[in-house]
Specification:
With 219 residues, this protein is mainly β. It is built from one helix and 18 strands. InterPro entries: AlgF.
């Protein structure tokens, strides 16, 4: 096979793969109107705790400390439990809202803090970054390593977002004198990517994951 034919083959294969991914995203099972989307971010060290939302397990990624989004009925108190103990019925998400629920432990008691990300919007030509500062007492900054600042003056328990061109980059999150690195993967147009800044054992940690929503099903 000639070089030109080989390049044409790979370009067609990549295009078909990309189109297939977009079709799966476009036609993924969605909930009816009147639902919100929540995910969990854990601040505890060690293996992720068992989290249940409305009596159904929600898996936390051990590497990132966060779950995918799950569709839940809006305008109803959320039943959230950690390791079998109910921790809150005060979270009542609005319709179409996206929430990150940050769970942390004080001695043997689990607590939850809600971060309202607003409603989702997308730019089909760009990717979108979300930066969540999960370090108590810290005003955080996220920048390109040896480059410009992306987010600054981010207080604890907040989210900041912006669209970017889908490129790879080495990032650096910082609080006070500490900093933590993260290599941003190659994103595609329309992707959402969340970056979490935490502090574990006196060390800052920066993790990231593609934002995904579980396919909707009746629970």
């Amino acid at each position: 096979m000639s070089l030109a034919a080989l390049l044409l083959f790979f370009s067609i294969a990549l295009a078909a793969r990309s189109q297939g991914q977009e079709i799966r995203r476009l036609y993924a099972t969605r909930p009816p109107a009147g639902y919100a989307f929540i995910r969990i971010a854990a601040l505890s060290e060690g293996p992720p705790p068992r989290v249940q939302v409305n009596s159904a397990d929600l898996q936390i990624n051990e590497a990132t400390g966060a779950s995918s989004y799950r569709a839940v009925p809006a305008n109803e108190p959320l039943n959230l439990s950690v390791n079998g103990a109910a921790i809150s019925k005060d979270v009542v998400p609005d319709a179409e809202a996206y929430l990150t629920l940050v769970i942390s432990r004080t001695n043997s008691t689990w607590n939850v803090q809600s971060i309202d990300e607003g409603q989702s919007s997308s730019d089909g030509l760009k990717a979108k970054l979300r930066f969540l500062n999960l370090v108590p007492g810290c005003t955080a900054t996220l920048k390109i390593a040896d480059g410009p600042t992306i987010f600054q003056q981010a207080p604890f328990g907040s989210v900041q977002s912006r669209t970017i061109n889908p490129v790879t980059a080495k990032l650096e999150g910082s609080c006070d004198e500490g900093n933590a690195p993260l290599t941003l993967p190659q994103l595609r147009a329309g992707d959402y990517y969340s970056i979490f800044l935490r502090k574990d054992s006196e060390r800052l940690r920066l993790t990231g994951q593609l934002d995904e929503t579980e396919p909707y099903r009746e629970r």
